[in-house]
Every structure is written in C-alpha cells, then in structure tokens.
C-alpha cells in the first residue's frame, strides 16, 4: 500500500515520540505515521480529574511523554471514538489503539489493531501451557491483569514495573520473575521499550514479548 498513513491513538496525550518512533521503525519506508492522544485538548486540571475509580478502571500513561500518571479507563473510552475519527480525517487508513488494556466495542473501532489482542494471541500460540511471567505497570492492576491472562494449563506470575523505571529497577523486577522459572515473559504495557526488553530477556533467559513491537509487526503486515 503505497503512501499509507498509519494513525496511532494513545490513551494519554501527544506528543509521544517514543511510541510514534517505534511504530515508524516497524512499518515500511515511506509510511506516514501520525499520533493523537485521547486526552489531547484537555487542561491539566481536566486530565487530573480523570482519576480511576478502582483497580479495574486504572490505566497507566505518560502525559505528553514526560509525566507518569494513572487515568480512568472510562474517561479514555468516552473520548476514544472521537480520537479515531480525527485520525481518519488526518488521512489514516490503518489504525492502532496503543494500549494493552482490554476495551469493549465502541464506535469507530472496526478494523483497528488492539495490541492486547495481538499479544494475547501471540502468547496463546507459543505457550499453550506452562508458566507465563507478566510485567505490568501498577500493583493495583495485578488482580485484573492476572485474570485477563489466566486460562487452563497456564500459570501466570505478575510483577509490577513502571515503564519509566531505571535499569536497576527493571533488572530487579526481572529477577523476581526469573525466580518463578517462567517459560515466556510478556511485557503488558505499550510504555515498555526495546531497552527494557533486552534487560528482562538477559535476566530471565527465556523468550520475551514486547507489546509495542508485536503490534508494530502486525501493522506492517497490513501495510505491506
């Protein structure tokens, strides 16, 4: 697909050059990559008002790519359709919703790549049974995300790790996972990058799946 435009919707605010740049590295040369955030256009006070009601409503993001924060999943869903519509008006013909959370159906989501579905299917294909090591952003997400991944024959061990963690903090979290001898590690947040994956893989010494690059490679298949 020549001169394709890829639209990336983040759950927080743009710009997010870390996310845009990783998708740009995965797609064919010449692909235009544009990014919009579901919380774009909100004041700082309005963003801070998007507080989660409980662990099930909690998402992690980085506002304008710089400040860690917890936001309400319901607030994101309320603005998701408009964000995707804006990307389509920008000319995007392939779209990705850059969050590994699970989302209910909403207007405009047809044909959109959801990284959670990509990562879950990937794990199910390569690890039908065994031990899954799971890295998640926040401790309060442990119950919900462990339940999301659970299935018969799969033992899930979760470890919280904020994506802005230092190399030492990443290694420590990986060491805690390694103690459970996982067969595979999944890094369940779009904020984790290749550098963090390299540390986790070196410590755990098992295949390690990174959500953003897994989704990026699926997007490339849609564009090529």
Q: How helical, in percent, are the residues?
A: 25-40%
Look at the helices and sheets and give the structural class. alpha/beta
- Side by side, the strands of the main sheet go 7-6-8-9
CATH top level class name of the largest domain:
Alpha Beta
Count of the domains: 2
CATH topology of the largest domain: Rossmann fold
Q: Quickly give the CATH architecture of the largest domain.
A: 3-Layer(aba) Sandwich
- SSE pattern, N- to C-terminal: EHEHEEHEHEHEHEHEH
Task: Give the integer mean of the pLDDT values.
Answer: 94
> What is the tally of beta strands?
9
Which percent band covers the strand fraction? 15-25%
Unreliable spans: none
Q: What radius of gyration results from the CA coordinates?
A: 17 Å
Q: Helical stretch count?
A: 8
Shape: globular
Largest sheet: 4 strands, parallel
First CA to last CA: what distance?
Answer: 6 Å
